Amino acid sequence: MEDVFLEVLELVRFRSYSRAKFLFGPEGAIIVGRNGSGKSNLLESISFLALGKSLRGVPDSDAAMDGGDGFGIYAKFGGEEEFRISVVYNRGRGKRIHIDDRPLRRISELLGKFQVVSFSPEEVHLLLRSPAGRRRLLDMLLSQVGGYVWYWQRYRRALLHRNRLLSEGKPSRRELRPWDLQVVKFGSEIVRRRMELVRWMEGKVKMFYEVLGGGEDVAVLYAPSFPVDGDILESFAESLDESTEQERRLGCTVVGPHRDDLSVRIGGRDLRMASQGQAKSFLLAWKLGEALFLCERSGRRPALLMDEVFSDLDSERSEALAGLLVGKGQCFVTAISEDEVPCPVRNLRVIRVDGRCVP
Ligand SMILES: Nc1ncnc2c1ncn2[C@@H]1O[C@H](COP(=O)(O)OP(=O)(O)OP(=O)(O)O)[C@@H](O)[C@H]1O
Ligand SMILES: [Mg+2]
């Protein structure tokens, strides 16, 4: 099996990079620099090539240098297949993405071409804080495989219409009916895929968590906002029907994938009680599971974008993690200094950034 790997990356007016060019090998790199030197920015730019947007979940305009007019990310890929991807954002014209010289009409045409699994310390907080953060964990992954985004876009549109009707007055069931049908149709597919993913992930997460040195038992379970009894579509339709009265009072849709959650228990306790280190190890185990998932679905190993993975892990956990990261496709790891990175990750090429990358 040969992977696709990011070979050349050029950034123009992207965050702290006025102009910069990086060359990478198939195994990846350690990105080294002091605080604020642009390490996370570099990983973020790579995420645009896979997702068409930032892994930070922020608007494109945030990434334009000093609030300027736009930015450009230009990449060349090698390996099993050679191609180029460019993502160019301009405040007036919006975002334009090309594969080779072909302009894409929608982001979904990009997804799957180059896949990434990312980890950042902020994500640990996001995950601990809210169901929305946990839903995002599922959605970011699933959107990299077949058609999920398509379902989301349709679900969101139907939900928006339904919520508008509910918030503007007390719509009759007949008025709501067309939107109910769509919400259920697209929403149940989202729930089905998320449930399938979580079931698949549970065993992998347990295994990686254990290898990472976590002694506790880990359980992950999809927690839908409505009781699923047999068929998902029918259960959703039934619950939506039953909640209509309440929804007319509240003015919004209260059941559906936008209200679901991922339940995580570590050592029998809810994730909210987990220590920082436990939460971090869980997220890392989940991310390693993600890499397996993408590999199984596409036959290619995704690139790993690992921001500050080794900081605040004890040396045993760090070494276990380093062993899991290498040999799993292209791997990008950030660090203040390469000395804090254990072998075999330490053998990766070192790329130094200093916040003033003008070639
Ligand atoms: N849109 C932007 N335009 C210009 N500079 C920006 C923009 N967004 C962020 N920066 C700058 O980028 C720098 C932060 O870069 P980054 O987060 O990549 O640092 P880092 O190397 O990951 O640091 P740390 O080790 O602290 O995580 C900050 O100095 C910030 O001011
Ligand atoms: Mg950083």
Describe the structure.
It is built from eight helices and 14 strands. The model has no long low-confidence stretch (mean pLDDT 93). The chain folds into two domains: 1-115 and 300-359, P-loop containing nucleotide triphosphate hydrolases (Rossmann fold), CATH 3.40.50; 127-298, Up-down Bundle (Glutathione S-transferase Yfyf (Class Pi), Chain A, domain 2), CATH 1.20.1050.90. Helices cover 41% and strands 22% of the residues. The protein has a six-stranded antiparallel sheet, with helices on one face. The protein is globular. It is of the alpha/beta class and 359 residues long. Adenosine-5'-triphosphate binds at residues 15-16, 33, 35-41, 63-66.
DSSP, total strands: 14
The CATH topology annotation of the largest domain reads as: Rossmann fold
Shape field: globular
Query: In sequence order, what are the helices and strands, one letter per element?
Result: EEEHEEEEEHHHHEHEEHEHEE
Tell me the domain tally: 2
Number of helices: 8
The percentage of residues in β strands lies in 15-25%
